[in-house]
């Protein structure tokens, strides 16, 4: 099917022969067709039309046995809202997708795990990193069956950022490699190109993506955007003002095109990336102007993480803007939000300048991001699942036995244990149990 191959078909038969004849067809046929056409409309830059179609299609989704069609519809509706920076509406749709999947297909169903990846995306960009990580780990169990490319992006990309934040470069590399291999084996140009761009952005060695000889027009357009992201990321680590002068008009044109397509979220992320590049290359006035355009949107939407991902370059820009509000007249609410997000901005004056080779070395260096990202939970705030696993570890169960007993994957058990080690400040299972008992987390 074109949708799963990340292709947008010019064939209008689904509209003409299914949607317009919906009253005489089985609800399943109409439901599936509506979801496919919704995908096409989203990627034609027709978000409002896609949204109206999903509202209309709900009557058919709910008549279908099983949850998959309705879950997919809710996921697409949430994606449209997220692109529009309507985070509350995206949350409504994605949480409803998960709830529907659990009620109609079960908590361990494909549909439930599919929707978890998107709920994780929302939590991640809101700065709720620990909760997002847990959901991404569970969604990752789907592997290459994680739906359309738009649903795969956050699981691989955001989880890699989280691994880097944890100081786990090997783990970040492994996640990106999985995403890249999925893109290559399934011939999903947009996915593998994004993974290569992400490698470069995180400071890994990466080869610039190249266009397949038989690429379609859409694939060319997609990879051109990822090539720009790759090139911008490269300029975070290698100062080259001449290259910046060349690429800047192209990047600004991409921002305009994304706005036209209705993907305001991706435009915002790319604008933050461009601001960081300008900062690293000494164009501070342009960097300030570029960033202050998006700060009110980040604050209004409640999504700090795109700024946090920016590392030191974005921190320096924010520091200047906080210290000189008279130069851009932000709302008091926005300024207070910035101060809360970057509470140590004054100390940045002592950090290396953009001329220092270390200053732009890594876009998301763990020691910098950890200063601003969500703190790990205290032992008293352990989740019910974490407590269950602690009790089973104390009882002598192996990882395999814990996985079987709780109906979760072995990798998920390992992830929970790593998280418990970090939270409790230990490195072994035995120490984990002893520490938990000393803190009265375990009886």
Automatic annotation (TrEMBL):
The keyword Metal-binding does not apply. SMART domains: HTH_LUXR. Signal peptide: none annotated. Gene3D superfamilies: Tetratricopeptide repeat domain, Winged helix-like DNA-binding domain superfamily/Winged helix DNA-binding domain. It holds the Pfam family GerE. InterPro entries: Sig_transdc_resp-reg_C-effctor, TPR-like_helical_dom_sf, Tscrpt_reg_LuxR_C, WH-like_DNA-bd_sf. Residues 375-440 form the HTH luxR-type domain. GO terms for molecular function: DNA binding. This is Transcriptional activator of maltose regulon, MalT. The lineage of its organism: Bacteria, Bacillati, Actinomycetota, Actinomycetes, Micrococcales.
């Amino acid at each position: 099917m074109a949708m799963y191959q990340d292709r947008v078909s010019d064939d209008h038969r689904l509209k003409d022969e299914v949607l317009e004849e919906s009253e005489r067809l089985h609800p399943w046929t109409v439901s599936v067709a509506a979801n496919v056409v919704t995908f096409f409309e989203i990627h034609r830059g027709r978000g409002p039309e896609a949204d109206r179609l999903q509202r209309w299609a709900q009557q058919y989704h709910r008549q279908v046995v099983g949850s998959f069609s309705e879950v997919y519809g809710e996921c697409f509706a949430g994606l449209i809202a997220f692109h529009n920076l309507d985070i509350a509406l995206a949350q409504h749709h994605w949480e409803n997708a998960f709830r529907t999947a659990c009620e109609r297909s079960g908590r361990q169903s494909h549909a439930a795990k599919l929707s978890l990846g998107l709920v994780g995306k929302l939590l991640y960009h809101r700065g709720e990193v620990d909760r997002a990580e847990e959901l991404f780990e569970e969604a990752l169990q789907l592997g290459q069956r994680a739906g359309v490319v738009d649903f795969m992006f956050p699981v691989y990309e955001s989880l890699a950022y989280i691994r880097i934040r944890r100081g786990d470069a090997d783990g970040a590399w492994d996640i990106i490699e999985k995403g890249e291999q999925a893109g290559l084996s399934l011939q999903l140009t947009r996915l593998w190109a994004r993974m290569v761009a992400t490698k470069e952005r995180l400071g890994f060695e990466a080869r610039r993506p190249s266009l397949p000889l038989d690429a379609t027009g859409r694939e060319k357009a997609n990879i051109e955007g990822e090539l720009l992201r790759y090139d911008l990321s490269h300029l975070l680590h290698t100062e080259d003002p001449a290259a910046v002068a060349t690429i800047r008009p192209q990047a600004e044109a991409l921002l305009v095109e994304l706005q036209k397509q209705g993907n305001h979220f991706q435009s915002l992320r790319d604008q933050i990336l461009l601001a960081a590049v300008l900062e690293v290359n000494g164009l501070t006035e342009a960097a300030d102007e570029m960033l202050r355009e998006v700060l009110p949107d980040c604050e209004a939407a409640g999504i700090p993480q795109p700024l946090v991902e920016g590392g030191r370059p974005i921190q320096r820009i924010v520091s200047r803007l906080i210290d000189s509000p008279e130069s851009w007249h932000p709302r008091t609410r926005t300024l207070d939000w910035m101060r809360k997000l970057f509470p140590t901005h004054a100390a940045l004056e002592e950090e290396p300048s953009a001329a220092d080779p270390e200053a732009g070395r890594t876009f998301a260096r763990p020691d910098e991001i950890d200063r601003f990202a969500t703190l790990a939970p205290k032992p008293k705030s352990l989740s019910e699942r974490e407590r269950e696993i602690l009790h089973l570890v104390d009882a002598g169960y192996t990882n395999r036995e814990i996985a079987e007993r709780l109906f979760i994957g072995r990798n998920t058990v390992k992830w929970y244990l790593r998280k418990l080690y970090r939270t409790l400040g230990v490195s072994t299972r035995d120490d984990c149990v002893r520490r938990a008992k000393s803190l009265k987390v375990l009886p």
